[in-house]
Amino acid sequence: MRIAIMGAGGIGSFYAARLSQAGAEVVLIARGAHLAAIRQDGLRVEGLDPPLAPLRLPATDQPAELAPVDIALLCTKMYDIEDAARALLPVLRDDSFVLTQQNGVEAGALIRPILGAERVLDGVSYVSGHVQAPGVVRVHGEVRNAIEFGEADNSSSDRARDFAALCARAGFTARIADDIEAVLWHKFIIAASFAGVMTLTRLPVGPVREDPDTRRLLGAAVAEAEAVARARGVQVSDGLAEQLFGFADALPAELTASMLEDLLHGRRLEVTWLSGAVARLGREAGVATPVHATIYAGLKLHAGGTPAY
After folding, report:
1. What is the pTM of this model?
2. Domain presence at residue 29
């Protein structure tokens, strides 16, 4: 199976490492100094057990140069997703598919008009990691249940089962969802709320969950996003807030959201597609979202990549 990883960052590099070890033919699509370092020294993926030697995989910033692929894992940020989808068009056959791995809930809707609805499977990633330096990615702990994904109609297709089987051979689970819309929203609620509060406070998860005021703020953000999901007819599980706090309390205290890392390094932010999307979708559904609206207002002036002060 030939697989393109579009975006060799914290998520994409984990997949590249594990899938190539399982015998898949993996090609990387990256850019800039990160691409140059990968070409020169290989891709170093740190934080895996046992440690891996640098991955010597084909890498390019020109997908049209590649031979056709069976699958493309789309691991870019939301603000790059439409350009990334267009760049993938030359390497997709009619029977190829693209698997979304974004935090935002609207990824599939944005790229289906570009790629064709039949080529897109929606998914979420539970991998956490970041680029430490050009060519060097650190994964925050080994992830066994790494992906949930599915067809838009929630069918269990041959192509979904084949990919899930490959992931199992690679040592992690890619679960085919019974209700992919609910899965997307569950991850979106987590990502928008946790990333929003951590980035607004400039703090990792430990201090945020321990302080009573920021813990209440986080709970309010989760409740707002959950209310928007329910108003839009999404089947969100009961007791979601309690589940998410259980999840948060088990995380390493020093864990930071990728959006906070982006803010601190002067990179672009996904806030428009996270808290901004909660606020926008809430307005459309008639649901008040004062916490997410405030998070968006507080961060949107940094969304273009201005340095933090």
Report:
1. 0.93
2. yes
